[in-house]
Design goal:
MetI-like fold, four-stranded antiparallel β-sheet, two-stranded antiparallel sheet, 8 strands, globular
């Protein structure tokens, strides 16, 4: 008689090396890595042999050779004939990052603003926002870049008829040679003001977190923006005046045929910045609109039912829940902004492609190395943007749950 209480034992599975799923997974991964590695070796070896056959130099020794051409817009010290092609690469990379950074900031703010307006109950506002999206999203970016450069900034008044955007203070001047602005020259104790500003920002951040925690616990809303804004403004001002106002200004002054002093931004930079910002803002606006529409209507109805105003409903309820749907396309838009900045070559802005992959390549050759370095630069920037925003996307998804 068998014992019914004895536990049922499963038959022991036999290990089959060729049929095991884990073995096959590792095998196919190793096979794929081997094929990719062989293709890379073949391409590199074949390219090297062809270059040697044609007597073309290879390697990166050219990076230490002095570059003999001038650069109009640069963020580091550089002299033609003294600076090297390494300096040219750094200048081009910094110029690319500069225009991309400002274009990403502006396009994101404009895109969120227009995306919210697309859902406005006001018919005129919604249609104007729709027209903006449809016009700028469907016109090729290169055409927009050329339009802003040739059709707008090149037609600004001449230097003698400069437009003073600072209402007579001569701190912000615009003409067909660019935008001229006063530049701050900090004194010895100005670091105290900077430190006070940092302390105020950190304090405002922790105050905001504490207010949100209290709201989650008790439901009581606290006005965070007004105290935070007051702290960020008043505390640095107190430190600034207490240290004797250690800040001077380098003001642009007209001498001869142009302005000297201060800081200036050339028309190519302005045209590229406006074109990139407006074009990508149109795409971001559609992502924002789609993200907001993905939130169930009951969420806004419930928020309105407990007495929240429409603006608070959008900022506290709708947008936080829409972010998981907004961030993925936002990643692509930010990466495309960096890559599309290479269109600067059409209007003469000295970005990486213009300085390094065009001018430097024409002078020293080394096409494979120069093109490869340029590709790696754009790839690394895109990967960094993707990693950072994906981390944020996981955070907002956890918050939503």
């Amino acid at each position: 008689m068998s014992d019914q209480s004895a536990p049922h034992k499963r038959p022991k599975e036999k290990f089959d090396f060729f049929q095991d799923q884990r073995v096959r997974s590792v095998f196919y991964q190793l096979l794929t890595a081997g094929v990719v590695g062989w293709l890379a070796w073949y391409l590199i070896n074949n390219t090297s042999e062809n270059l040697q056959t044609r007597g073309m130099a290879t390697g990166f020794d050219f990076m230490d050779v002095s570059a003999g051409f001038a650069v109009d817009f640069k963020m580091i010290d550089y002299l033609p004939g003294v600076g090297t092609y390494t300096d040219i690469f750094i200048i081009g990379a910094l110029n690319t990052l500069l225009i991309s950074f400002f274009a990403i900031i502006l396009s994101t703010f404009i895109g969120f603003f227009v995306g919210v307006l697309r859902l406005s109950d006001n018919w005129l506002v919604a249609k104007v926002a729709l027209a903006y999206v449809e016009i700028f999203r469907n016109v090729p970016l290169l055409i927009q870049v050329v339009f802003w450069y040739i059709g707008v900034f090149s037609l600004l008044p001449a230097v003698k008829k400069t437009v003073d955007l600072s209402f007579g203070a001569e701190r912000l001047l615009l003409n067909n040679r660019g935008l001229y602005m006063a530049w701050p020259v900090p004194g010895d104790l100005f670091w105290v003001t900077i430190l006070a500003f940092i302390i105020a920002v950190v304090g405002a951040f922790f105050y905001s977190r504490r207010a949100h925690k209290m709201q989650d616990v008790s439901g009581e809303q606290t006005n965070v923006w007004l105290p935070s804004l007051a702290a960020v403004i008043i505390l640095p001002l107190i430190a600034f005046f207490a240290t004797g106002m250690p800040l001077d200004w380098d003001i642009p002054v007209l001498e001869g045929f142009n302005f000297v002093g201060g800081a200036s931004v050339a028309p190519p930079f302005l045209a590229l910045l406006v074109a990139l910002s407006i074009y990508h803002a149109a795409h971001i606006a559609e992502s924002v609109r789609a993200g907001i529409l993905s939130v169930d209507r009951g969420q806004s109805d419930a928020a309105m039912g407990i007495g929240l105003k429409p603006g608070r409903v959008m900022s506290l309820v709708i947008i936080p829940q829409a972010m998981p749907a907004i961030v993925p396309p936002l990643i692509s838009n930010w990466m495309n902004t960096v890559k599309n900045s290479s269109l600067a070559i059409a209007i003469g802005y000295p970005d990486l492609v213009s300085l390094f992959m065009q001018t430097s390549l024409n002078q020293v050759g080394h096409a494979v190395e120069i093109v490869g370095m340029t590709m790696v630069f754009y790839m690394l920037i895109s990967l960094i943007i993707s990693v950072v925003l994906n981390i944020y996307n996981k955070h907002v998804q956890l918050v939503e749950r």
